[in-house]
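Intended use. Records like the one below are meant for learning the mapping from a protein sequence to its folded structure. Do not use them to infer anything beyond what is encoded.
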Amino acid sequence: MMIGRSARSVGKALYWGIDLFLPRLAGPRILLYHQVGTELGREMEVSLHAFRAQLDWIERIGRVVPLETALAESRSSAGDDGYVLSFDDGYHDVFEVAFPLLRERQLPFTLYLNTEPLETGVAIHPESGAKALTWSEVETMMESGLLTVGAPHSQPRRRSSGRCRCLS
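Structure written out for the chain above:
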């Protein structure tokens, strides 16, 4: 288990480093995160240290823009240095770990929610201890003006409770 986690960490760092030397492709970059700084050892987790370093790097070389801005600019030639920060599924650590850093830096971000855990209180992955966001936490992040909520997913039979404005 420890060797697998170490190999994943090395692989992530390697790909991130290689990207620094590749020619830039046209269009915005969308960085997709699942969990930040939980230390649960899940495959889609990034450490708090790595997340901070990525934010520092992005702010040095480009700009973070809302998803809507990146999409609008990609249809024109207004610019291609936009970075979009996107979080998937609605893990609690988005609020507890990532949001304070994003709010401090005034960086916009997009959140795609798995609404079932928000509405039922059931953990996203109960076996790992990965807690879900609450509606109150989503509302707090929305009040910051930094959050865009993407269309809820992973709930084929039920619709969102309608508590948030969503991209579709």
